[in-house]
Write a structure and sequence with these properties.
Belongs to the ABC transporter superfamily. Ycf16 family. The protein has 252 residues and is of the alpha/beta class. 35% of the residues lie in helices and 26% in strands. The strands form 2 sheets. The chain has a 6-stranded mixed β-sheet, with helices on both faces. A 4-stranded antiparallel β-sheet has the order 2-1-4-5. It binds adenosine-5'-diphosphate (ADP) and magnesium ion (MG) (2 copies). One magnesium ion binds at residues 84-86, 89, 155, 158.
């Protein structure tokens, strides 16, 4: 398995500092949850790691198996085995889901090692089945006209087919009804093995009833302020975030 190390990460957007020194290490085989109130920088963390141009890293490092991720081009990050499911996946007009998936798989596998069309179709059909996704979706343009739930299922479809080393899933549970939530969780749990590490960003504890994290981290005001086991998520569900602010003397 791979290891993603985030060390003292500071990130600014338009000269405003959003992340103020984040430390997190995710190893293959581990599921980590990052929770926290809205606006505390959870999505900023995900976008900065994946190399979104708007996010300026002013200090700190991100290493994948010791390699500097921040020095890599965005497509190199994917090739190295990083995967990001965004909170708001974008629509890609003119590119079908199936074409997008196939070229993503091939980008990850590298030149000379492309997946055959037959094997691709076989793998895609089996993943579509597993996730209970209508086969027609593969021929529609990526995310165009997809409902919120379809977009999230599609992210999990990508995850199953790309088999990344480390995945960062930003609010993969938002807007899902209970059936979709179960399917999305089933997909993520299917990947659980020593060669897969996952950072699950979520505002609510609900998803963690289906995916048991090894570690739970609370982010506030651009920092990880508290870490614990699954019981920490349960307490947040019951009591909210106020007690942490009081305990740590954090002002709004
Ligand atoms: P979370 O995901 O925890 O809700 P975000 O990372 O989305 O938080 O946002 C953290 C802070 O950064 C917020 O104050 C938000 O307004 C600001 N921010 C995030 N993205 C942008 C952006 N693209 N441009 C300007 N400000 C942003
Ligand atoms: Mg967010
Ligand atoms: Mg994606």
């Amino acid at each position: 398995g791979s290891t993603l190390e985030i060390k003292n990460l500071h990130v600014s957007i338009e000269d405003k500092e959003i992340l103020k020194g984040v430390d997190l290490t995710i190893k293959g085989g581990e599921f980590h949850a990052v929770m926290g109130p809205n606006g505390t920088g959870k999505s900023t963390l995900a976008s900065a790691i994946m190399g979104h141009p708007k996010y300026e890293i002013t200090e700190g490092s991100v290493l994948l198996d010791g390699e500097d991720v921040l020095e890599m081009e965005v497509d190199e990050r994917a090739r190295a085995g990083l995967f990001l499911a965004m909170q708001y996946p974008s629509e890609i007009s003119g590119v079908t889901t199936s074409d997008f998936l196939r070229s993503s798989i091939n980008a990850r596998r590298g030149e000379g090692n492309e997946i055959s069309l037959m094997n691709f179709i076989k793998e895609m059909d089996s993943a579509l089945d597993y996730l209970d996704i209508d086969k027609n979706m593969a021929q529609r343009y990526l995310n165009e006209g997809f409902s919120g739930g379809e977009k999230k299922r599609n992210e999990i479809l990508q995850l199953l087919l790309l088999k990344p080393e480390i995945a960062i899933l930003d609010e993969i549970d938002s807007g899902l009804d209970i059936d979709a939530l179960k399917i999305v969780s089933k997909g993520i749990n299917r990947l659980r093995d020593e060669n897969f590490g996952c950072l699950i960003i979520t505002h609510y504890q609900r998803l963690l009833n289906y995916i048991t994290p090894d570690k739970v981290h609370v982010m506030m005001q651009g920092r990880v302020v508290k870490s614990g086991g699954p019981e920490l998520a349960k307490r947040l569900e019951a009591e909210g975030y106020e007690w942490i602010k009081e305990e740590l003397g954090i002002e709004d």
